[in-house]
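User: Second chain of the day. Same drill as before.
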Amino acid sequence: MGQFLMLFSITLLPPVIIDLLYQEGAAHAFFYSYLILLSIGFLLYLPVKKQANDLRLRDGFVVVVLFWMVLGAAGAIPLYLYEELDISIVDALFESISGLTTTGATVLIGLDALPHSILFYRQELQWLGGMGIIVLAVAVMPMLGIGGMQLYKAEAPGPVKDNKLTPRIAETAKALWYIYLGLTVACALAYWVAGMNLFDAVSHSFSTVAIGGFSTHDASIGYFDNQAIEIVAMVFMFLGAINFALHFSVVRSKSLMPLLRDSEFKFYAGLLVVISSLSIYVLYSQSVYHDFSDALREALFQTISIATTSGFVTSDYASWPVFIPVLLLFSSFIGGCAGSTGGGMKVIRVLLLIKQGQREIMRLIHPNAQVTVKIGKQPVKNSIIDAVWGFFAAYVALFALMMLILMFTGLDQVTAFSAVAATINNLGPGLGEVSANYAGLSDFNKLLLCFSMLLGRLEIFTLLVLLMPAFWRR
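Assistant: Same format as last time:
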């Protein structure tokens, strides 16, 4: 953690440089935070710098959880120290954890008037969190026996389905870093060409590839009212929610066949087509948009943004008619693919739940038949099916519990339901009182939703295992 904090402190220097360029008076908050975190990190590292013990499985769980909890708290420091923001420590913590977990829920109002350094820092938090998610999901979590990537053992053999893309974790992390960085640079250039200024292009590329949803403007992507910018956002949100191991395979093989052969990707793309088609039909048939091209543009953008758990908006989708707002919110429960920066339960889990349901129906029809669940042409082990059911049960139970707690504190059903859904799925915007921001919630509710964000990002069991007394017994 000492090393993590020292590395994280370096990320506070770019906002200092940006503030000096724009002369907006926020540099001191970032520089003081840099000194604080560098000092704390060094003091933690100094007593154990000569220790060379390998991490055990138990240590792995602790490190993964602390990565977000400690850095989430550390990330709140500059936001709290900047006096002009005038926010409480709870608000600063909420904003920081929302950024690092790539949730995109915000308590800040009046983004257009904030210093460029603060705006850049929020985007940077999401970008760093997105990279951390990918490395942990693809390189670290399979070794711990958690996370969606272990499910890929059920697929056809090949580099995509291995526990590690390359023999060493360091090489895996480096390969993923290059792909992540390449997508970010390509996204920034595309935004710039489409009409954003350089600052907005770089800032939005950070939150787009990270599937974060933070923006430098209160109106989000809708601020630009530019179809080319929206197309760029849709393309890179779609790419960001694809398993990065698949990106690795596509780059290495110089072919799109790894995508076309992957069951999870095909299911993911199919869902987006179905949901966007329904949204387009309702918006056009209900005359929300009289021009079909407008209905197509708005429905497609909101569908990709919400379903991938990005959370960018170009219009007030919460006011759309019939079932569309709820349908879009439900799509975030599925979320992105395993090993991506997307949130939600992950497409592969939902696909396996459906296949398991089909198996149970077949068993009722043919009680003596041996029915195997398959992904592609490969059978899935029963232990993996059990793990998925366990995850789903824990997810539903925790969701219901947190929703009831929020309702007990006075929130209405729609706000409580959507607030939990938007945070545990790392989506961001909800419905009701949290459709625009979370500033109106109490400190207790914000802390509960911080826990919800961490639960969603850490795949639930990773965090819950630390709360079990058996974990701490020798």
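The chain has 20 helices and two strands.

User: Great, on to the next one.
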